[in-house]
Amino acid sequence: MSSSSSSSSQQMDQLVADKHVSYIIMSEKKESFESVVMDHLRMNGAYWGLTTLDLLDKLPSVSIDEVVPWLRTCQHESGGFAGNTGHDPHVLYTLSAVQILALFDKLDILDVGKVSSYVAGLQNEDGSFSGDMWGEVDTRFSYIAICCLSILKCLDKINVEKAVDYIVSCKNLDGGFGCTPGAESHAGQIFCCVGALAITGSLHHVDKDLLGWWLCERQVKSGGLNGRPEKLPDVCYSWWVLSSLIMIDRVHWIDKAKLVKFILDCQDLENGGISDRPDDAVDIFHTYFGVAGLSLLEYPGVKAIDPAYALPVDVINRILLTK
């Protein structure tokens, strides 16, 4: 074996963190086709990129003075945030904005009353949440609202009992959860429901063995995880499935070493970034979920991430342990 192929195979077994940092910083600045297509999602992209930088201990490489003014232009009179300047507000982008400010320890620039009232106003009579004024209902929005209000310490603005009851009504016979009552179980929805139940201290509603079995069945031969039966593995499920397993204390039911290898195999070793599967094109979304997955797997050199709040543990401790 030549020395170059030898060093390449050694790289395959490790996280090329510096390359990922460079990729994220370049992605945040370039005007590529991808950035134009994702224009309405820029708030999410900023959250994914900045959280990844923080997990790799490189958040100071981005200036808060560049982020905050742009963030302000995305906020509407209602208190909600849009995915970018000139777009409509949505609870998803509002959470991302709050998470970004939490990373930089800048939650104090928010009018918390206004933001929390916007989120709380999206709760429906049955306890569910709409994503925005147009009324689409999904358990994702229940999680997003609960997570956002918990970070802002305003959970008392909603009917938590009704919110929990609605989530429980979306539980299926296989132990999983769907987007609405009766909808099929999916790993992304399971994360949202388990995360919301964890934040509200309601995990007793989960059948941990039954759900744990469904989740560990998501691991395929390559070591990767899929989102539901018979689907291809995808790096993003390294987060959705793994965080759920950790919250219900069943993470020891999967092969962690094989999952680490799958994530590392999805890296672009030359230009940085992580893809959904080996040899596919990289993007910010999968780079974040790959690094977040490695964090949950306690990979060396990656800071710990909170499985419920999807923010570094030190950030969550700073928020929740201060009055």
Query: Can you tell me the residue ranges where pLDDT is under 50 for at least 5 consecutive residues?
Result: 1-8
Helix fraction, binned, reads 40-55%
User: What's the shape?
Assistant: globular
Strand arrangement, major sheet: 1-2
Distance between the termini: 59 Å
As a percent range, the share of strand residues is under 5%
Mean pLDDT: 93
Task: Give the tally of β-strands.
Answer: 2
Radius of gyration: 19 Å
The H-and-E topology, N to C, reads as HHHHHHHHHHHHHEEHH
Q: Please, could you describe this protein's structure?
A:
The chain is 50% helix and 1% strand. It has 15 helices and two strands. It has helices spanning 3-12, 17-29, 33-37, 42-55, 64-73, 91-103, 112-120, 139-151, 160-168, 187-199, 208-216, 237-247, 256-265, 284-296, 313-320, and strands at residues 274-275, 282-283. Strands 1-2 form a two-stranded antiparallel ribbon. Strand 1 (274-275) and strand 2 form a beta hairpin. Helix 4 packs parallel to helix 14 (284-296) and helix 12 runs parallel beside helix 14. It is globular.
